[in-house]
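=== RUN LOG ===
request id: a7f3
mode: sequence -> structure
chains: 1
length: 328
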Amino acid sequence: MRSGIPVSGVTASQVTDRRVPPTGSRSGEDPSSVLVRPAVVPGARTSLDAMRIATWNVNSVRSRVGRIVDWLGREEVDVLAMQEIKCTEAQFPMEEFGEAGYEVVLHGLNQWNGVAIASRFPIDEVQIGFDGMPGFLKGEEGPDLPLEARAIGATVNGVRVWSLYVPNGRALGDPHFDYKLDWLSALTAATRDWMAQHPDDPIALTGDFNIAPLDSDVGDPTFVSGVSTHISPPEREAFAALEAIGLSDVVRPLLPEGFTFWDYKQLRFPRNEGLRIDFVLGNHAFADRVTGATIHRNERKGDAPSDHVPVSVDLDLEIDDDDRPMIF
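=== RESULT ===
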């Protein structure tokens, strides 16, 4: 899963603005895909045994940077995977994150989509996209369609973290729906291959999956079986395929109920008519280290919130089978 556009062997002190062109030269693809690392990260953390990882579809990082950075500090989040940042590198509010002690890597092409990872730990092995990830262009078909800014992975404190913004699907029967299923199939294959090569390494796929896997994940009455995306059998089967290769929803065992998204329309949030579509999926090496989880529902309140809320998990990275000699 590190074959897309990997970047390794580069430290934060060596890079302040590194541009990484996409693999190949696909038609319509912006060459400004970037990995951005501040030369100095105030308050950056070194390796520790505990880590808090969160995912949040922020629905425009520029519109909500103050809110995001404030939340990071209040909740003491070490790593935040963001989706729908909706900006390019030049537009990203890097200064605000840097002042708060976060290093950021991102992949954003325009005012749509976009993913990023912010961390108080050093970020390594950054990769844009995953092996076999399909592209999309409305009305076009073929293997060389432009790749959207929907996936970025990195290793943080020994944990492989992916920020993923799964395609919406738009409508059953729409070409974007087929694209969504192809995208998920490629993600599953790439993750399976990575785990086979790194069986003992923790990995987490985090983000907005645009799928409600269970009926209990659907509280919005406008989502109707047989009519709506997000709840169709093919989408739920695609989610189940990720679980079949050895991933699990590490939040649900601790929080079996709770939505992560409420539409802005029709008072969906006050009525609690939401969806559970934001997840942290981890392999055994990751899941075994999870000690807590939170769906931060209150972040849907207040002025100009995102329509999604953050989901966070706490990890204990200390190795249980420590063979060091005991000291009495």
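=== NOTES ===
The CA atoms of residues 140 and 175 lie 9 Å apart.
The domain at 5-21+32-316 is CATH 3.60.10.10 (Deoxyribonuclease I; Chain A).
=== END ===
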